[in-house]
Amino acid sequence: MLYDVRSDVGVSYSPWSDLANAINNFIQPDSNFGPMVDVYFDNYVGINRANAVLANVPAIGMDSNLKERVLGEAYFFRGMHYYHLASLWGNVVLQLGPSAPTDLPATSSETQVWAQVIKDLTDAAARLPKNYADPKDQGRITKGGANALLAKAYMQIRDYESAKKALDYLVTGDGASSYNLVSNYADNFKITSEFNVESVIEWSYIENPTEGTDNDVQTANHNFGTSVGQFYAPPGVGWSDAEALRWPIAEFEIEKTITNQRDPRLPATFLYNFTNEAGPAATMVYGETFLQRYGNNKRVSFRKFLHDHARNFEGYRGINNYRFIRYADVLLMYAECLNATGKTNDAYQYVNRVRARAGLAPLTTGMSQTAFLTQIKHERLLELTGEGHRFNDLKRWGDLAPTLSSKDPGFNNFVKGKHELLPIPQRDLDINPNMSQNPNW
Length: 441
Prior knowledge:
Layout: E1 10-11, H1 17-24, H2 34-56, H3 64-88, H4 110-127, H5 143-156, H6 160-171, E2 199-203, H7 228-232, E3 243-244, H8 247-252, H9 265-269, E4 270-271, E5 284-285, E6 288-289, H10 290-294, E7 301-302, E8 322-326, H11 327-340, H12 344-357, H13 369-384, H14 390-397, H15 426-431
Antiparallel strand pairs: 1-3, 2-8, 4-7, 5-6
Helix pairs in contact: 2-3, 3-4, 3-5, 4-5, 5-6, 6-11, 11-12, 11-13, 12-13
């Protein structure tokens, strides 16, 4: 939600007004607001666990290859958790060893946090294997996964040359043979086609039928599923705390495919009155037509990680895996990096691979660097909307601004120099005088 709804493609009409204001309208009731603090807290839970592994595993007598892999996984997860903290809070505490009650670390700058993310992910990539032979290891982080997230980190600090080098492994290097685009775009979001060749990093979910909560961090009887569908599904099915804005639909309709059809990514991305081109009476929403459920309602739901293709309900124990990074994202990042480093002519082929899967004609060459970046922005919108990357894309491009209010009225309240970051929880500031609040909060 924090990445989708705080960008210009998502909206919240949640009846919990504090939530809607905080994640959509940039009006947070206080810095201890539960939904935000939970994300902050959970990332530090992960960091604490990774620190325990990194501190203790080196002294354990065990197979050296296994030890390297375990350390690589720990470096990855610490880097990933700090990636989220750097993206959302920016200036946070770097805790790089097991914590003690007497620890009072000072706040590190956003620049320092990104540097640590890059160091951890670099260490992870050096230790992790290309792939895993044992099916029981399906879903473990690979060298390609670590390099993909490393590239995202470099791109957020606009070091496109280093980002390209990290992506080389997946696109032109030894890892390229492990990845490709699946033929059917929608297969990236179905329980029947998980861990396909396009998946670079994928979080696996299963149902624990004996659990009684959506909490997957603090309880003994964990929820091994996902709650995304429950919070994203349309009214009457889920809570609809996060929804999609309607303007991106028009972006999908700008081009027809080479066979004069609409972009097949549109119905895979959104549930709305024309998910089926025949209209509300033909569009199915969890076993009923859109017309039956909502009449002429114009609201739009993100569809990608729902379960409507498999069952007529949602819940807190969803089993549809979350594809954190797909190979299509990698190809578009690679093209963006090539363009940013003056190699625009080399970048077309990677965008065209993504377009070809959607049935679109190849791009016409000869664009300026600026025009190509504008095209990349459009391509990423169509390919990745609803997958949690839009906020960081806008931030990287320098496009987070009140001017986005023409697309998303929530940005009428956006203040540059403030709302790019969330406030550090006051409860942490109260117990650690060496920490400081983010600017203008």
